[in-house]
Design brief:
The complex is a heterodimer of chains A (127) and B (364). Chain A contains three helices and no strands. With 127 residues, chain A is mainly α. In chain B, a hairpin with a 2-residue loop joins strand 1 and strand 2. Chain B has 13 helices and two strands. In chain B, helix 4 runs antiparallel to helix 5 and helix 5 packs antiparallel against helix 9. Chain B has a two-stranded antiparallel sheet. Classes of the chains: A mainly alpha (127), B mainly alpha (364). At the A-B interface, helix 1, helix 2 and helix 3 of A face helix 1, helix 2, helix 3, helix 4 and helix 5 of B.
Chain lengths: 127, 364
């Protein structure tokens, strides 16, 4: 049984190899076939709708984006925990209905408190 | 057995890849024709009948254009980014069951038992390509586009992941397939042998046995659909591109086929999302018609089921294209508010309600 599941990943690797070859094939093909143009200083400037670029290319960004990334990690891990629970839920309902529901309700409740906290702190406000 | 397995896998990989690429190419044509129709224009009509060869013309043009790497970019990432956008969207297709059986071969590239978790794992990787594209460009518009895009994609990924949980709550049924006579249960049991609960084929089996999951979990469907638009960066959530403000967003500094790779990546991920939606909510390759509602016993039936799957998928894809030309774009704060303040609590409530409903009334 274990063997058969490991074999199942072989086609995934094949597809991955094909996808990588395809992408890099296109990149290389584009270099080989593409027109060779002259390099001019104007061509090398960052594109800003034809205007001369102002200031640095990498601007500073709002700290909000980091906050979103952190919240994402929290909630995404929560989602991963939900899947095994969902997979055994109906089976456990026959033997231990109170436990399987109670366990997840308490888990979700704790996370929901965290969610409310983030909400009240204004983590989801964009100005 | 092993060499046969490798041969058939290779064959399936090649077939799926070429069909996917064909759909991707022609989706561009359909998109242009549909938008033209909606905006009362003609659309592409010069190359071949109805402009059908536009795809080939575009490819030739893409290859022959100057492949320019501006001097101000971070070279390695600049080259890597288009490939990283393309690869994950192609990889996701591996676990989608696009048909039942052709002879003794299961019509899925890899029948993984982790199923849906694999999908979400791979879909997350697509963010890297866009972030790298923006970071590598060292230019303001791409940078803003990519930073917006990453925040948007990871926000909606949570809602997407949560919206799928109720499906497994409902469909991971210990009773298994019902006995509807006429070899129904046997056909399914041999088909599902060796799979476990998070496998997507099981979800299809359950839907054939009961009813499409869109009926049982309409709220999940709504959230998944909206999150799908956000994940593939399509209107009404195409903030990373927003051509009016950012002039195209993260791919501004790209030219020739490198730009085309981003484009193809977007359409590939759109196609794969449509396939995933079909599998999760619309019954996959089954139709509630005798013969089509169980694994195929003959090759014509098997082919017919693949056609059913493709038809459903293309309808979903057409709707995605249609929506793009009918809806205005969300404002950024509205987009984030919708994701974090509406969809996540709603998806959580959806999970709880489904769980409690099953707790009160366990059997169907």
């Amino acid at each position: 049984m274990e063997d058969s599941q490991i074999y199942e990943y072989l086609p995934v690797l094949m597809l991955g190899a094909l996808a990588v070859m395809f992408s890099f094939g296109i990149l290389v093909g584009s270099v080989l076939l593409g027109k060779k143009g002259k390099r001019t200083p104007i061509k090398d400037t960052p594109y800003e709708c034809g205007m001369l670029p102002v200031g640095e290319g990498t601007t500073r960004m709002s700290v909000k984006f980091y906050l979103v990334a952190m919240l994402f990690i929290l909630f995404d891990i929560e989602v991963v925990f939900l899947y095994p629970w969902a997979a055994v839920y109906r089976e456990m309902l026959r033997t231990d209905p109170g436990l399987i529901l109670g366990a997840m309700v308490s888990f979700l409740a704790i996370l929901f408190v965290g969610y409310i906290y983030a909400l009240k702190k204004g983590a989801f406000d964009w100005h | 057995m092993t060499s046969q397995f490798i041969l058939f896998s290779l064959l399936k990989v090649l077939c799926v890849f070429s069909v996917l690429m064909f759909i991707v190419g022609n989706a561009v044509w359909v998109e242009r024709k549909v938008s033209a129709f909606i905006q009362d224009r003609r659309g592409p009509n010069r190359v071949g009948p109805f402009g059908l060869f536009q795809l080939i013309a575009d490819a030739i043009k893409g290859f022959l254009k100057e492949d320019f790497t501006p001097g101000h970019v971070r070279k390695a990432y600049y080259w890597l980014a288009p490939a990283i956008v393309m690869v994950p969207s192609l990889l996701t297709v591996a676990i989608i069951p696009f048909g039942s059986l052709l002879g003794s071969q299961k019509m899925v590239i890899a029948d993984l038992n982790v199923g849906i978790l694999y999908t979400f794992g791979i879909v997350s990787l697509a963010v890297y390509g866009i972030v790298l594209a923006g970071y590598a460009a060292r230019s303001k518009y791409p940078f803003l586009g990519s930073i917006r895009s990453s925040a948007q994609m990871i926000s909606y990924e949570i809602a997407m992941g949560m919206s799928v949980v109720p499906l497994f709550l409902i469909a991971c049924d210990p009773k298994g397939i019902r006995d509807l006579g006429n070899g129904w249960r046997e056909a399914w049991q041999t088909f599902l042998a060796g799979t476990s609960s998070l496998n997507l084929s099981r979800l299809v089996a359950w839907q054939a046995d009961h009813c499409w999951l869109i009926i049982y979990a309409p709220l999940s469907f709504g959230i998944f659909l909206a999150a799908m638009f956000a994940e593939t960066n399509r209107l009404p959530f195409d903030l990373p591109e927003s051509e009016q403000e950012l002039a195209g967003g993260y791919n501004v500094e790209y030219s020739s086929m490198k730009f085309m790779l981003f484009f193809m990546g977007e359409y590939a991920s759109m196609t794969v999302s449509a396939a995933l939606l079909t599998t999760l909510f619309l019954g996959g390759w089954t139709l509630p018609i005798p013969g089509l509602d169980r694994p195929a016993s003959t090759i014509p039936l098997g082919l017919l089921q693949i056609a059913v799957f493709l038809a459903k998928m293309l309808i979903v894809e057409f709707i995605i294209i249609w929506v793009r030309w009918m809806w205005p774009r969300f404002r950024y704060d509205q987009l984030m508010a919708l994701g974090w303040r509406r969809f996540i609590p709603l998806a959580l409530a959806n999970i709880l309600i489904t769980a409690v409903a099953l707790w009160i009334k366990p059997g169907h």
